[in-house]
Specification:
The protein is an alpha+beta fold. It contains eight helices and 21 strands. The chain folds into two domains: 99 residues, Purple acid phosphatase-like, N-terminal (Immunoglobulin-like, Sandwich); 316 residues, Purple Acid Phosphatase, chain A, domain 2 (4-Layer Sandwich), CATH 3.60.21. The strands form four sheets. Strands 3, 4, 5, 7, 8 and 9 form a six-stranded antiparallel beta sheet that branches.
């Protein structure tokens, strides 16, 4: 008996060591609920990062006390402890934990529930941003992006073949080791059973966030998000959706953006190094899609004024405008929810960029279940690029999207299957270069493009 116990103990140690080996973790299937703690629903997930604080998100299965202990990887003996937060039923047992940090540090962290450490078969790490201005060249920045994440739930899905698949794509993204992930909308898919109740809306977000394949990515990669119709409400939903304030509540609960509501809805912004991101809300103020006239609205007066003012004021090298739906596709199709149908807003946005000579603007969008790079050549000034990246795990449209008469599409950049993208920014302050790469589910490169900051002036 003692020999059996000794053998099992040695075997457990070997297995535990294997799972904690970072380079091999992505070959494993991670359980949806940590077996070591029935109190953990999902997470931890990293939210925003600044030079002075980082946000960590956790959801428990019932009311519990949660906190983290964290330490600089270069000084592990100096252990820091966050405030302890009691999760509550009325907030769906979600905690937003704030860690006070110093600039340009990489930290390991530990999660505690009811003062008991929870062990994970993957690393828990976060980083603070670099204090570089007036001191050194800006840092190299790498981030991933994608949209349309469908997690199957058979009791509530439509009959037939499951719509979601290839969830191992999140292992491929995690292997890229990006500084952060941009979620471009349709990050979860509300179902017919969810649309008309707070219970359904929060259930759907909870179910999606528990996806096993996402957990390692969420735990060590900072995350920022906007939404589109499926995490806002029903398909192609607009400002008339009566529970939009409930889905807004859920979005703020489940994501860790640095701020919300600069222009209303989920809109906001954040800075990373020498670049700035402007997160737009294309649903909260949107008029019904049947409005085909010049007065159709996608963003609303308050939000459009805010983003144009903020772009004008920004001193960032690249200014990334992030939106759930496409902004440049000019194909005229009755069912297509493109920005060009909102004539006044469309003209005002692109005309203001030109008249005010706002440099460095690039668009990131999702929604379409295909990816492509669009380019708008503008006489007398620089071209505007739009990277549309979709879908992550929902169904792709295959080659059908190639038939659209989109006059801005860059040749050989269309891809209609599941995919993700990365963007890497390198170079000195005056010679920054953005490298865009599109990858398939397994991480194989589909195409690559480079854009120099000097060419966007």
């Amino acid at each position: 008996m003692k020999k059996n116990i000794l053998f099992l103990s040695l075997l457990f140690c070997c297995i535990n060591s294997f799972f904690f080996t970072q380079n091999k973790i992505f070959a494993q299937k991670i359980p949806a609920v940590n077996p070591a703690s029935p109190l953990l629903e999902s997470g931890p997930m990293l939210g925003y990062s600044t030079m002075m604080e980082v946000m960590v998100w956790v959801q428990t299965t019932q009311s519990a006390k949660v906190h983290i202990v964290y330490y600089d990887q270069k000084n592990p003996k100096e252990r820091l402890t966050s405030q302890k937060i009691q999760t509550q039923a009325d907030k769906y047992f979600i905690a937003h934990i704030i860690a006070d940090v110093k600039p340009d540090k990489k930290y390991d962290y530990e999660l505690y529930i009811n003062d008991k450490q929870i062990k994970f078969p993957y690393p828990l790490q976060f980083q603070s941003q670099m204090l570089w201005r007036w001191r050194t060249e800006p840092p190299t920045i790498k981030f991933a992006l994608g949209s349309c994440n469908y997690v199957n739930d058979p009791p509530y899905d439509r009959p037939g073949k499951p719509y979601g698949d290839n969830h191992e794509i999140f292992y491929s993204i995690a292997k890229e080791k990006p500084d952060f992930m941009l979620w471009l909308g349709d990050n979860t898919y509300l179902r017919e059973s969810d649309y008309d109740s707070r219970t359904g809306i929060f259930y759907r977000h909870t179910h999606t966030r528990k996806l096993p394949e996402m957990q390692a990515l969420l735990a060590s990669t900072h995350n920022y998000a906007t939404w589109d119709d499926h995490d806002f409400g029903p398909n192609n939903s607009d400002r008339s959706y009566v529970l939009k304030d409930v889905t807004l509540e859920a979005f703020k609960a489940f994501w860790g953006n640095q701020n919300y509501g600069a222009g209303g809805g989920v809109s906001g912004s954040f800075v990373w190094g020498d670049v700035e991101f402007f997160m737009l809300d294309d649903r909260y103020f949107r008029t019904p899609s049947d409005y085909q006239g010049i007065d159709a609205i996608m963003f609303g007066e308050k939000q459009l004024t805010w983003v144009l003012d903020a772009l004008k004021a920004s001193q960032a090298t690249f200014k990334f405008v992030v939106c759930g739906g496409q902004m440049m596709n000019n194909a005229h199709l009755p069912w297509l929810e493109n920005f060009v149908k909102c004539g006044n807003e469309y003209n005002r946005f692109f005309t203001t960029l030109e008249k005010e000579k706002i440099p460095g603007v690039i668009l990131f969008t999702g929604d379409r279940h295909n990816s492509e790079l669009n380019k708008m050549d503008r006489g007398g000034t620089y071209p505007i690029y739009e990277l549309t990246c979709s879908p992550l795990t929902a169904g792709g449209v295959g080659d059908r999207g190639k038939e659209e008469k989109n006059g801005f599409r860059v040749s050989d950049t269309y891809y209609g299957e599941r995919n993700y993208a990365t963007c890497t920014i390198t170079g000195t302050r005056k010679e920054r270069v953005l490298t865009m790469q599109l990858f398939d589910v397994q991480g194989k490169e589909i195409w690559k493009r480079e854009i120099k900051a000097q060419d966007l002036k």
